[in-house]
Amino acid sequence: MAVTASAAVAAPPPIVAKGNGPATACASCHGVDGGGNAQAGFPALAQLPQTYFTKQIADFKSGTRSSAVMTSIAKAMSAEDAESAARYYASLQRPETQAAAGDPAVIARGENLAVNGAWDRQVPPCFKCHAAGGLGVPPVFPPIAGQHASYTVNQLQAWKTGARTNDPQKLMTTVAENLTDDEIHSVAEYLATLGTQGKKK
Amino acid sequence: MNTSMRYLFSALAISGIVGGCDKQPSPQAAKEAPAAATASVAPTKNADTTRSRIASANAPVKNAGDSKKPAPSKFVPPAESAIPKNEYGETVLMGKNIFVNTQQYAQNFVGNGLNCANCHLDNGRKADSAPLWAAYVLYPAYRKKTGQVDTIQSRIQGCFRYSMNGKPPAFDSKEMTALVTYHYWLATGAPTGVKLPGQGFLKVPAPAQTPELARGGEVYKNNCALCHGANGEGTKAHGKYAFPPLWGENSFNWGAGMHRIDTAAGFIKANMPYGRGGTLSDQEAWDVALFMNSHERPKDPRFKGSIAQTRDKDHDENCLYGRTPEELATLLEKKAKTESEDKAKQAKPAHMQSEGYSPATAH
After folding, report:
1. Which pLDDT belongs to residue B55?
2. What is the percent of chain B where pLDDT is above 90?
3. Contact predicate B295/B145, CB 8 Å
4. Shared domain check, A84 and A50
5. How far is residue B198's CA from residue B72's CA, in Å, rounded to a whole number?
6. Mean pLDDT, to the nearest integer, of B303-318?
7. Looking at beta carbons, which residues of chain A come within 8 Å of B53?
8. Does some domain include residue A136?
9. pTM assigned to the model
């Protein structure tokens, strides 16, 4: 069923396949399939809502979001580059991740937080805003299911420490500030185990 | 103060201060729960967890407002992992499923786009969000809204009729049995006939300035529209509502407790936006509650004759049913004046003044 989807996907635009001068090709780190890279902490981009994607590029440029790698690349990207990369990655199915053979107790703690939250500490469940199963609520709330744990941990820590401030209404900042490091680790591990869109119930 | 006097004072305080849209007094037998007693019934499977839950509820909340913070809940309902693995537990779980995903599990009884858990956050567990464990122990109780002693079943039927704009499940339906079982299980160990801390919605005192639509619209745009949409229509994803509609044909009807400005202000102040409860000021909470409830929504099923007749019969000063914002403002100002005069005449004990009205009666 999912196989036929790939046939319909357009060829990657130049910014994704070849890059644009100092703007490295997106695919070199995030893959032409948008799967990212778990070891390196490069996020999966497939399925990101288009407006979410272009907002992140704009935020890297303006500095409300920063990254040793992405800030300079984003600055070298034209508005058209951002648009075409966003359109391309939004159209892809998120590649299935290898379910991490993590500690079941850690995964269970992460699942509990994602599903039930910790309301007594002002922590709503992830799935309250990112939809059941973490599939995302476009255009504002990106899918978090199947995202690499390394990336999710980095971002939650960035919000917690104030290094990333581009969330609307401080929603993620507030959540991250109320999470312990162990919770951040376990919820990221859990989210990474979730299957791809369409396969997850 | 002896016990009977306490009851009398409670009843007076509640009916006097918080005469709501449906003029229902709190169940009169209810009394304050001694904090120690409720704390002691909290399941203490994991002492550390319990302690941290209670302690963290006391932790400072970034609070831009001026009313009391959401009170820490002393009663802790059992953990979901404690649902027994037997026939009883299966019914608890079914009740929970109906409660959380009413659209799917009780679709024949729902006439809008809502789930029970949209207003009763944390699956009916969260204090100041009309938690089920606190509601359960207050029934049966006489309610003005229905003019009878309601059982928990008939109370739940009210939720379906108004908040869910639907058709109530029968007392002996499997849906009702499952919902009551879920309520009962959440209240495991709670004393009956006692108003537990965190019961109902937060009571937010009337703000300094009379609530105003224009200010409310700004608060809405800046804090609510992201999820609930510019026109209160909610946001759908993957075929269902990810964020509920706040007005319009798919929201609660004019008979639901949430159409009252004071009730909505309390819910919003304590719980909205997700994770940022307590960040709106009392003024902002009232303004945005007025704004939300100034829009059209499904009709009050109690409608009889005309809007004016229905208003006079069923809707008091805390709502915009059949009256303009200006008329409401005049009424609120008059009420505030009367209250301050009353207060001067008989100084009430502080704990009664800060009291929320009955919960449950809020629908």
Report:
1. 34
2. 66
3. no
4. yes
5. 7
6. 89
7. 120
8. yes
9. 0.83
Span A169-177, average pLDDT = 97
* Largest interatomic CA distance in chain A: 50
Q: Check whether the bond before B273 is cis (ω within 30° of 0).
A: yes
The average pLDDT across B343-349 equals 57
Whether residues B122 and A119 touch (CB distance < 8 A) is answered with yes
State the nearest Cα–Cα gap between A199 and chain B, in angstroms. Answer: 13
- In sequence order, which residues have a C-beta less than 8 Å from that of residue B137 and are 6 or more positions away? B187, B190, B191, B192, B193, B194, B196
The pLDDT, as a whole number, for residue B341 is: 76
Does the residue A125 lie in any domain?
yes
User: Torsion angle, CA of B97/B98/B103/B109, rounded to 10 degrees?
Assistant: 170
List, in order of start, the domains of chain B with CATH numbers: 213-362 (1.10.760.10)
Distance CA B28, CA B263 (A): 20
**Average per-residue pLDDT in chain A?**
90
- CB-CB neighbors (< 8 A) of A128 in chain B: 274
β-strand pairing of B141-143 with B148-150 = antiparallel
pLDDT of residue B15 exceeding 90: no
- Is the domain of A61 the same as that of A121? no
* A35 located within any domain: yes
pLDDT at A83 over 50: yes
Does B126 sit within 8 Å of A119, measured CB to CB? Answer: yes
pLDDT in tens, B260-301: 999 999 999 999 999 999 999 999 999 999 999 999 999 999
**Domain co-membership, A59 together with A109:** no
A–B interface: beta-carbon pairs under 8 A: 57
- Long-range CB contacts (within 8 A, 24+) of B91-94: B91/B177, B91/B178, B91/B181, B91/B182, B92/B178, B92/B181, B92/B182, B92/B185, B94/B174, B94/B178, B94/B181, B94/B182
* Stretch A57-68: mean pLDDT: 94
Supply B243's token pair. 């964020």
Containing B237, the helix (H) or strand (E) segment is strand B235-237
Residue A42 pairs with which residues in a beta bridge?
A37
Q: Which residues pair with B149 in a beta bridge?
A: B142
Alpha-carbon span B174 to B49, nearest angstrom? 35
The residue out of A57, A90, A123 marking a domain boundary is: A90
Q: Report the CATH number at residue A139.
A: 1.10.760.10
